[in-house]
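**Backbone description:**
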Amino acid sequence: MEIILKNIDETRAWAGEFAKTLHAPCVVALHGDLGMGKSEIARAIIQTLCGADTVVPSPTFTLVQTYEGKWQMANGKCISHFDLYRITDVSELEEIGLSHAIANDITLIEWPEIATNFLPANTIHIFITEFEGGRKLRVALASLAE
């Protein structure tokens, strides 16, 4: 599926609607160059599920941020937002709790390329590219190996 988004408001609106389809455990891998909107999509998903007033900093330096969703607190589930940009060795993925999150949470992963072998086959991949007039999202439900 391809989606054309002309501005940040359209991006946030799409991500908010997309968020309503997610149920833990699931993995959303966000692919795209710097500045393509990966963090904005993650922020909109988190704020839709946890409340519009939820503060969502980029996990660039912390590597992971977790959020308890009002929608699933009874099940003890949460949202885990990973930014793997600074990860240089796959052994670090276990240290930051990626496997646990994948097995239990709604897991949002920016820069997922280093984690390819960790991602389940049913990972939702969102590829973001820029074109004149906006951004194009290609949403795929498949493993990167395919």
